[in-house]
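USER: Write out one fold?

ASSISTANT:
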Amino acid sequence: MNDKLVIGVTGGIGSGKSALTREFEKLNVIVVDADVVAREVVAVNSPVLTQVAQQFGADILLSTGELNRAKLREIVFSDEHKKQTLNAIMHPAIRNEMINQLHNAQSPYVILSAALIFENQLDKLTDKVVVVDVPETLQLERASSRDSVEQQQIQAIMASQWTRQRRNEQADYIVPNDGAIALLAEQAKNLNTKFLQLAADKLINVAN
């Protein structure tokens, strides 16, 4: 993966991280999404799902053999030890699959999209990180209306993530997303031009 430019994209819940990565996909850039990979590694009959069921009991499986996410969340939500046990199973599997997908991506550069890119030290897999930035009040409003989740739960998720200031301090690029989607598309196009140049420079450096 050393010759492939990897761009991290992150942002707090409700920031519009996925909206930005969709704009990059329109520009034919491959996006490896941590949330999607997390679902893929627990597909029916996968080794990871089998391990999770052995650890937490067969009742975390639906009749279809799929993971009952609501049930699993219920089990680990208020039990820190169980949460750590689940993370010890899931995180290495997710990380390995993300690395595999990044390595096999067929575009000049590839995006790694993850809400907890800094918290889980996934930025070590990237060359640059883009932070999608919105005020906390807008995060709360967007996330609660999008997910039909109580604001208290959204606030708890926000509290578990890095603060807006801390994320922005670590960012290589900050994309404000408190305006129209057209502005987001324009910013994606501008960044794409920069990243294509960075990708070409990296290839030259590796070749030399």
The mean pLDDT is 91. The two ends are 16 Å apart (CA to CA). The first strand starts at residue 5 and ends at 10.
